[in-house]
Amino acid sequence: MQVIENCSASLSNYEVLNLLQKVEPNEKMNNLATITYLASKYLEDTPCIKQNPEKIRKFLQEIGSFNLTKCEKLTLLNLCPTTPLEIQLIIEDSEDRLSDDDVEAVLQIIANLREDEQQDTKQT
């Protein structure tokens, strides 16, 4: 295999799931079909299933006011933590970089991102 264009970017789970859903099964690539299926099934059980480009855009705008790295923002988007402890595990030196109020604000932003998911869970 030859790399034609060397371009790397970090993708959110939502973007990966979108790409995997567009992959067409091919008899010659049986292993690829298996990996695609398993990865899709895994991602369907994560918060990304309820995300959309508008929610992600809004999340990134709101989270932009905090001094977080791109990797930390992506991890927050992918994992959607619900407790201050999870925030501490995701954000390096969070005790020094974020106040308790900041952590609560981040959790509220994430709660807004997960809003539809939580409403669906309550209805079932």
TrEMBL record:
<dbReference type="InterPro" id="IPR005574">
    <property type="entry name" value="Rpb4/RPC9"/>
</dbReference>
<dbReference type="InterPro" id="IPR038846">
    <property type="entry name" value="RPC9"/>
</dbReference>
<protein>
    <recommendedName>
        <fullName>DNA-directed RNA polymerase III subunit RPC9</fullName>
    </recommendedName>
</protein>
<dbReference type="InterPro" id="IPR006590">
    <property type="entry name" value="RNA_pol_Rpb4/RPC9_core"/>
</dbReference>
<keyword id="KW-0804">Transcription</keyword>
<comment type="function">
    <text>DNA-dependent RNA polymerase catalyzes the transcription of DNA into RNA using the four ribonucleoside triphosphates as substrates. Specific peripheric component of RNA polymerase III (Pol III) which synthesizes small non-coding RNAs including 5S rRNA, snRNAs, tRNAs and miRNAs from at least 500 distinct genomic loci. With POLR3H/RPC8 forms a mobile stalk that protrudes from Pol III core and functions primarily in transcription initiation. Pol III plays a key role in sensing and limiting infection by intracellular bacteria and DNA viruses.</text>
</comment>
<comment type="function">
    <text>Accessory protein for the calcitonin gene-related peptide (CGRP) receptor. It modulates CGRP responsiveness in a variety of tissues.</text>
</comment>
<dbReference type="GO" id="GO:0005886">
    <property type="term" value="C:plasma membrane"/>
</dbReference>
<keyword id="KW-0539">Nucleus</keyword>
<dbReference type="GO" id="GO:0006384">
    <property type="term" value="P:transcription initiation at RNA polymerase III promoter"/>
</dbReference>
<dbReference type="GO" id="GO:0005666">
    <property type="term" value="C:RNA polymerase III complex"/>
</dbReference>
<keyword id="KW-0240">DNA-directed RNA polymerase</keyword>
<keyword id="KW-0472">Membrane</keyword>
<comment type="subunit">
    <text>Component of the RNA polymerase III complex consisting of 17 subunits: a ten-subunit horseshoe-shaped catalytic core composed of POLR3A/RPC1, POLR3B/RPC2, POLR1C/RPAC1, POLR1D/RPAC2, POLR3K/RPC10, POLR2E/RPABC1, POLR2F/RPABC2, POLR2H/RPABC3, POLR2K/RPABC4 and POLR2L/RPABC5; a mobile stalk composed of two subunits POLR3H/RPC8 and CRCP/RPC9, protruding from the core and functioning primarily in transcription initiation; and additional subunits homologous to general transcription factors of the RNA polymerase II machinery, POLR3C/RPC3-POLR3F/RPC6-POLR3G/RPC7 heterotrimer required for transcription initiation and POLR3D/RPC4-POLR3E/RPC5 heterodimer involved in both transcription initiation and termination.</text>
</comment>
<dbReference type="GO" id="GO:0000166">
    <property type="term" value="F:nucleotide binding"/>
</dbReference>
<dbReference type="InterPro" id="IPR038324">
    <property type="entry name" value="Rpb4/RPC9_sf"/>
</dbReference>
<feature type="domain" description="RNA polymerase Rpb4/RPC9 core">
    <location>
        <begin position="2"/>
        <end position="117"/>
    </location>
</feature>
<keyword id="KW-1003">Cell membrane</keyword>
<comment type="similarity">
    <text>Belongs to the eukaryotic RPC9 RNA polymerase subunit family.</text>
</comment>
<dbReference type="Pfam" id="PF03874">
    <property type="entry name" value="RNA_pol_Rpb4"/>
</dbReference>
<dbReference type="InterPro" id="IPR010997">
    <property type="entry name" value="HRDC-like_sf"/>
</dbReference>
